[in-house]
Write a structure and sequence with these properties.
The complex is a heterodimer. By secondary structure, chain A is mainly α. Helices cover 64% and strands 0% of the residues of chain A. In chain A, helix 8 runs antiparallel to helix 9. The longest helix of chain A is centred in the C-terminal third of the chain and has 27 residues. In chain B, 55% of the residues lie in helices and 0% in strands. The two termini of chain B are 31 Å apart. The chains are: A mainly alpha, B mainly alpha. At the A-B interface, helix 2, helix 3, helix 4, helix 5 and helix 6 of A face helix 1, helix 2, helix 3, helix 4 and helix 5 of B.
Chain lengths: 187, 170
């Protein structure tokens, strides 16, 4: 059993389980699935700086931070007890493309050759981790949600605005991955 | 009875993830017990395990998705949406209540331009980091500690949005 859980889970198991987070949170306490707002609550706690956007009673939203904290714990369990020691299986086309940029190690889900402390001091690492993180935080809040809040929660509730947001997430990702990222990886 | 915090806002609230700011705000339980937050911690743990084991937190899988080289991510997100739609329909049809007996309220997300501009900006960040906000937490937990820097940067991005909000088109 544990051996089976250690292998990568297929989409038709993982997808429906993720989808069940929507009714689970609603039934647990009328909470809508979404995680980008946790970043806003952290701002409200740490550095509200009289900005109206961060002036609210974050304690009422504390559930979202427990949910986010749980994800860290869940990630730890999956990365230790349920660790898959095999390299990530990816499309050979991607393998040959990334080979040109010196990415050859597929043993961790987050590529160690690109995301590590030394890389933070290079232009490539700075763009991938710091600029990338900034765009995620800024963009999700501007859009009013992320993959969970818009693409899963919003679309589950058949919201047109969430469909528009999701199309834009994908368009942005396509442009970056295919037209801009290749240049960044050569830096 | 709903209690709304008085808050002076120049623009309508376009962010429905902070429910206590909405008219939908529901009464908090009289006294918070371990369980009132513990249940969300447990839900988070399960979600974190699913995110890692399905490899959706992998930068490699995100690159495959945006290059149309694998069905995996589309399968995960697509089947999650279908499951979500069916669940929400069941909740609405049968008037299912929360475990505390409250009526389930679903906020309507109104369209504003931010969903286009912000959506594109987030898409750029998603392809760079290989992570959206949920997976950032899972990546850190699974041992990629350097991603703490990405998380801090994402918090900074959110803060700058809050600062610049009134000047941005919505």
């Amino acid at each position: 059993m544990i051996e089976l859980l250690r292998r990568p889970w297929p989409w038709y198991i993982a997808g429906p389980l993720i989808g069940l987070m929507v009714p689970a949170l609603l039934i647990m306490g009328n909470k809508t699935f979404g995680l980008s707002s946790s970043l806003r609550h952290i701002c409200a706690i740490c550095i509200p700086s009289k900005i109206p956007f961060f002036r609210y009673d974050w304690k009422k939203e504390a559930w979202n931070l427990f949910f986010a904290g749980g994800i860290i714990v869940g990630g730890f369990i999956a990365g230790t007890l349920l660790l898959n020691t095999q390299p990530v299986q990816v499309n050979p086309k991607l393998v040959s493309e990334l080979f040109q940029y010196g990415v050859t190690d597929y043993h961790s889900l987050v590529p160690r050759q690109l995301f590590n402390w030394q890389m933070l001091f290079t232009m490539k690492g700075l763009i991938l981790m710091i600029v990338g993180g900034f765009l995620v935080g800024f963009g999700t809040r501007y859009a009013g949600g992320c993959t969970s809040g818009h693409s899963i929660m919003g679309l589950s509730n058949l919201q047109v605005s969430s469909l528009i947001a999701t199309v834009c997430f994908m368009a942005g990702g396509f442009i970056m991955a295919n037209y801009i990222l290749p240049y960044i990886l050569t830096l | 009875m709903s209690k709304v915090i008085p808050l002076r806002r120049q623009k309508p609230n376009t962010d429905f993830e902070v429910r206590s700011l909405d008219a939908y705000d529901t009464e908090q339980p009289e006294k918070a017990t371990w369980w009132s937050y513990g249940k969300y911690l447990i839900a988070g743990i399960l979600f974190g395990i699913i995110l890692v084991k399905s490899e959706v937190i992998s930068w490699f899988r995100i690159q495959e998705m945006f290059r149309l080289q694998s069905f995996h991510m589309y399968g995960v997100i697509g089947s999650a949406i279908v499951t979500g739609i069916i669940s929400v329909q069941i909740i609405k049809r049968f008037h299912i209540k929360t475990i505390d007996g409250e009526r389930i309220e679903l906020p309507q997300k109104r369209f504003h331009q931010g969903q286009v501009y912000g959506g594109l900006i987030f898409g750029f960040g998603w392809a760079l980091t290989g992570a959206c906000p949920g997976p950032i937490f899972a990546q850190i937990g699974s041992g990629a500690f350097v991603i703490i820097v990405t998380l801090i940067s994402a918090i900074a991005g959110t803060w700058v949005y809050g600062l610049a909000r009134e000047k941005l088109p919505h």
